C-alpha cells in the first residue's frame, strides 16, 4: 500500500515537473526540451521498478530494470557477438543492397513510362504485403548464416524504398523542369542537378522507414533457423530457458541499435537536406 | 494502351521469370529422381553433379525441365504447384476432407481457411485496439503540450525498436499469467498499428487552420465541441490514410505473433511448412496472407469512400 502511494506521489511529482518544464518560462531552452521526454522515460522506468518489487512479480514474468541493466553489463561480449551477427552482417548488408537496388530501379521506373504504369501499382501493392512471410523460404534457399538474413532484409526494404524514391523523383514542378530544359540540360543533367536533390527528403523518408524494417527482417529471419548467435537466436533460446533478464538485455541491444541506426540516418538527412523547411524549424 | 495493359504484361513477365527460375532451382532434385528411375542423365552420378553449375545441368539435360516443375518437395515450387496447393487446402480439404466443412460442419484444421480465420481475428482485434489507442493518444497530444513533449519522442523511439523481437516473449509472458489465444497476438498487432494512426491523427486534428478555430471560439464553443464538430471531421481523410497502413502492419504483427505459439494461424502454417520442407505450403500461406492484406486495405478504402460521401466530402 505504501508502495502504491509512493509510486503515485512520484508520478504526480515528476509529471508536475514535466508540465512546468514544458509550458513554464524555461520551455524555450534546448536542455529543457531534451529533459521533458527524458524525465518521462525515467518516470516510467522507476514506476516499473517499484511495481515489480511491490507486487513481487516473479522474475520469469517481468524482471525489474535494474536487473536487466546488470545482466546487460555482465554479458557484453555475448551481446556484442549477437550485435555483429544480426545487425552488422545481416541487417546492414541487406539494407545497403536492398536500398541501392530500389534506388536504381526507381530511376529506371522514372525513365520509362511503361515501367511507371506497370511496376508502380505492383510495387505499392507489394509494399503493403506481409513480406516477413518470405523469411522461411529465403532461409531455406540461402542457408542458416547471415546471407539468408540479408536476403530477407533486401526483400523487405525494397518496395517501401522504391515507392518513396519514385514519389520523390516526381516532386519537381513542370516550371522547374522547363527551366532546366531551356538551359539546354539533358536528361541526366536534369536528374542529377535538379530532380535528385529535390527527391532527397522523400529518399531519406524511405531510408528511415527501412532502418526499422531491416532490423525486423534480420531478427525475424533468425526465428526460422540461425547459427548459435544473433539477437533472434538469443531471444528465442533465452525465452526457452526462462532467462527473461537476458531476453530483455537482447531487446535493449535491438532497441539501442534501432534508435542509433535511425538517428544516424536522420543526422545524414539533416546534412544533405539542410535547405528543406522541415529541417530549418 | 489501356491502364491495365502494362500491369498485365509485367505480371505475365513475373510468371515467366518464376517458371524460368524454378528450373535451375529444382534441377538437382529432378535429376536425382530421374537417375533413380533409370533414366540417362548427363553427369551420370550425384557426386559429379554436386559441384556442377545448375544452369549447366539444365543445358545438359533439357529433357528433364518438365520434371523440375513437378517435384514433390521443390526448392521453388512452380506457380501451378502453388495454385494446386491453394485449391487443395482451401477448397478440396473442406469439401472432401474427413475434417472438412461438408462432413464435420466446421472448418478443417488441415485446411488454410481456418488458419486464415485465426490470423484475421487476431489482426482485427489488434487493429481495433491499436486504432482506438492511437486516436486517444493523438487527441491527448493535440490538447496537452506537456503530453506532446513527453510522449511523442517515445512514440517515435518505440517504432525504431524492432517490436517483433519482443513477440515470442510477449506471448510467453502473457501465457504465464493465464492469457492465451488471441490477445497476445493482438497486442503485437496493436503495437505495430498504433503508431501510423497517432502520426496521421495528430496531423489531421491540427489540419483546421487558425481562421476556423477562431470562428469556433467566436461561437463560444467549448474544447469538446471544437473537437467533435471541427477537429474530428477534419481529420477523417488523414485517419483513413493511416488506417490503411495500420491494418497492413497489424496483419504482419499477427503473423509474426503466431510464430512462437503452435496454436494455428498463417504464421504457424509457414513455420510448419519450413520445418517439414513443404515449400508449396509456405507459398500457399504466403499468397493467402497477401490476399488477406489486399482485402483488408480495400475494405478500409471502401469505408473511406462511404464516410467521405456521407459527409459530402470531396471523394
From TrEMBL, chain A:
Cell membrane found in the keyword field: yes
TM segment ranges: 31-56, 94-113, 125-144, 150-170, 202-226, 246-268
Domain ABC transmembrane type-1: 101-272
Places the protein is found: Cell membrane
Main localization of the protein described in the UniProt heading: membrane
Keywords linked to the UniProt accession: Cell membrane, Membrane, Transmembrane, Transmembrane helix, Transport
Pfam family, one: BPD_transp_1
UniProt entry tagged with the keyword Protease: no
Cellular component per GO, a single term: plasma membrane
InterPro entries in UniProt: MetI-like, MetI-like_sf
Coiled coil feature spans: none
BP GO terms, sorted: transmembrane transport
Membrane topology annotation: Multi-pass membrane protein
Name of this protein: Pyrimidine ABC transporter, transmembrane component 1
UniProtKB/TrEMBL annotation, chain B:
Entry keyword annotation includes Cell inner membrane: no
BP GO terms, sorted: transmembrane transport
Presence of the UniProt keyword Transmembrane in the record: yes
Alphabetical list of PROSITE patterns matching this protein: ABC_TM1 (PS50928)
Pfam families assigned to the protein according to its UniProt record, in alphabetical order: BPD_transp_1 (PF00528)
Domain of life: Bacteria
Record-linked SUPFAM superfamilies: MetI-like (SSF161098)
Similarity-based family: Belongs to the binding-protein-dependent transport system permease family.
Identification of the protein by name: Pyrimidine ABC transporter, transmembrane component 2
Organism field: Limimaricola hongkongensis DSM 17492
Record lineage: Bacteria, Pseudomonadati, Pseudomonadota, Alphaproteobacteria, Rhodobacterales
